[in-house]
Each structure stands twice: as structure tokens, then as C-alpha cells.
Specification:
Blueprint lengths: L4 E5 L2 E5 L15 H7 L1 H25 L5 H19 L5 H16 L10 H20 L10 H29 L1
Antiparallel strand pairs: 1-2
Helix pairs in contact: 2-3, 2-5, 3-4, 4-6, 5-6
């Protein structure tokens, strides 16, 4: 397959980048308790770090209702990066980390930052689901399968990334129409 494809229609020529896909392959079902027994010290530290990052995110989200500026974007992308890096340290969750890295990259690519507040509810929903995931695996250790939410979390991240990408391209095309 070609690296880049050119789509044509009668009024425009648009070059598209190849889609990056996040695939999830589950090897075997592992309960949270089995998982915790394999990595007891690392999981406690990871849980605390993720909990701190969630608290920072919810504070940022509350403040974003009042004002959302360039500093807020930098803080948000930093939180997403830190969250993904923390998850990435556990190989079993590399797909989730990759999805969050892609969301961070999408936020960085948005040119018109005034459009970001429109997607904050979607991002809040992703963080709500990440919190449920974290608590079930790291805190309560009450899930039968540590990968029970992987596909849902990855799907949420990709949907958010897609929405941000369309916002970015919409703002680019509307800028072109003005000239």
C-alpha cells in the first residue's frame, strides 16, 4: 500500500496520511489479583501516580469552564503525556498508553485553541473511564480480567483523536476560505 494517497474530487485535491491503527491482542485472561501478585510494588506506585494525575486533570477541567488558554493547552497535553507514560511502563497496557499518546498528539495539532473546550466533555468521559479502569485493577483489584476495558478505552481515545483531527482540518479549511 502507498504511504500517502491522493483523494480527488472535482473541486479539490487533498493529500491524506495513512491511518495509524491501534490493535489490541489479548493473550490470556488475568485477574487483577493475579496481576497485583506479579507486580505488587510497581502497581501501588502506579496507582498513586495515576490518581494524582487524575486529580490534576479534574482541577484543570474545572478551571477550563472559566477560561481555557494556551497555558491550559500546555498543561493538558503535559498531563496526557504523563498519564500515558505512567501506563506505558506496564507492558500489558501499551495499547492504552498508545491511544492516550495519540490523543495528546491530536491536542497539540489543534491550531484554534478556542475549539478545544467543545471536546472537553469527551475528554472528561475518557478520564472517568480511565479512573474506573485504574480503580478496578490497581486499587480494588476486583476485576476478573485486567483487559476488560482496553477496547473501550482505546475506542474512546481514537474517537476523541478523530474529532480533534476533524476540528483541526475544519479550522484549516475555513481559514483557507477567508482568503
Amino acid at each position: 500500500t502507498p504511504q500517502n494517497q491522493i483523494e480527488t474530487n472535482p473541486t479539490e485535491i487533498k493529500q491524506t496520511k495513512p491511518k495509524q491503527e491501534v490493535s489490541f491482542v489479548q493473550t490470556k485472561k488475568v485477574s487483577a489479583i493475579e496481576f497485583a501478585n506479579s507486580y505488587p510494588l510497581e502497581l501501588e506506585s502506579t496507582n498513586e501516580s495515576l490518581e494524582d494525575l487524575e486529580a490534576q486533570f479534574y482541577t484543570l477541567l474545572a478551571n477550563a469552564e472559566k477560561t481555557f488558554d494556551q497555558r491550559s493547552v500546555a498543561e493538558l497535553t503535559g498531563l496526557l503525556n504523563d498519564f500515558a507514560r505512567e501506563i506505558e511502563m506496564i507492558p500489558q497496557f501499551a495499547s492504552i498508553a498508545h491511544g492516550i499518546f495519540e490523543v495528546e498528539k491530536a491536542f497539540r495539532s489543534v491550531q484554534d485553541h478556542t475549539k478545544i473546550p467543545t471536546v472537553l466533555p469527551m475528554l472528561g468521559s475518557l478520564f472517568d473511564n480511565l479512573e474506573k479502569w485504574r480503580k478496578g485493577i490497581f486499587l480494588y483489584q476486583d476485576v476478573d480480567d485486567i483487559h476488560y476495558m482496553d477496547n473501550s478505552l482505546i475506542s474512546d481515545a481514537l474517537s476523541l483523536q478523530g474529532f480533534l483531527s476533524s476540528e483541526s482540518s475544519t479550522s484549516d479549511s475555513s481559514d483557507m476560505e477567508l482568503f
